[in-house]
Prior knowledge:
The chain is of the alpha+beta class. It contains 5 helices and 31 strands.
Amino acid sequence: MLDHDLSEREREILRLVATGASNKEIAQQLFITPNTVKVHLRNIFAKIGVASRTEATVFAIQNGLVQLDAAPPITAPSAPLAMPPIETGRAPSARWWIGIAALIVVLIGSVSIGTIRQTIAPASASPAPARARWQERAALPLARGGLAATAHENRIYAIGGESAQGIVARVERYDPSSNAWTVLSPKPIAVANVGAAVIGGLIYVPGGRLDATYRQISDRLEVYNPRQDRWEERARLPEPLCAYALASFEGKLYLFGGWNGERYLDSVYVYSPDEDAWRAQTPMPTARGYAGAAVVGNKVFVIGGFDGQAALAVNEAYSPERDDGTEESWETRATLPEGRYGSGVAGISNIVYAIGGEGDAGNPLAALQYSPEEDRWTAFDSPFPKSWVYLSLLPMGTDIYGIGGKTNDAPTSRNMSYQAIFTILVPIVR
């Protein structure tokens, strides 16, 4: 095995990277800090001559750092790998099968040991039509838009929103295994145009719109305990907010922009559950509300939005770890093909999805996927020709779910899933 002067600790971290473990998971397993993991990874990448976790994973496979019949899913390289020759008169060896697997990886996406896992981008390259990968699930018990939805322990929680009767405090849980919804304890304050995120087993729901005038906005942070079916209140927001973009990153909650009852904002606020406190961060380059946010790698991509005058096509990437006053924490990335707001935005397996939303032309908008690595947007097929706005989009397992929202200006109970990742089995021969 070529160890490239890797220390035992570095080999241990490289093995964990090859299993798909995040920096946080590696830190927890090795009882070190995530920052220490990052330092080790920089050193490892330099020693073995790679630039990404995917390339490091392939290095680990090729050099025997992981067991081919036991390792969990990993990500494949973007560079081609050569297939080893077959020796005449001999059965294919395990190394030959590794080469076959590597070649298939190059052709179709990403790999797990014994299986190939592919993330589709673009849809035209997929082995199955995009429409076949959309599935209609059990409808929401109450149709509504502007709701918050998030996943916890393989179940989806749909919270608040605006129904045909007005803003609601409704809380419902969806179980994909039974394809059924359960009604839970209502949220203390009925709100719409909100988001939700899970940190430490709790669901955080900040702010929200309180009435139809868009003037009464909440500054409350309400937190739901799914295991106890109980709500509690935490530190209030620095100002009332709704229609913000929301993301959780490294155990903290980030709110981007939004509407405060008077204007659209460029603000960024971060909440620490450990301290139960908010603080202001470097503002966004573009003030807006009704944007979407998705975390890919160590960046939060804040996409689209409305500035009070027009639908925006902006795509700005925020690096929380750089926001210490010494580095630029914002960068401009490839813009959307056209401006949109009220879209569902979610990230899964290094791809950002943007579905639905409203644009200035008033026409239904294409479903899009964005590759941060290529800095490129690609359209893919949507199963419905009509508009779909103010939905909640979230990843769970290998799928992304689009829940609720509005179609033709009326609340919808739509619950659709899209298979973003699928598995192809590859035989492993000893």
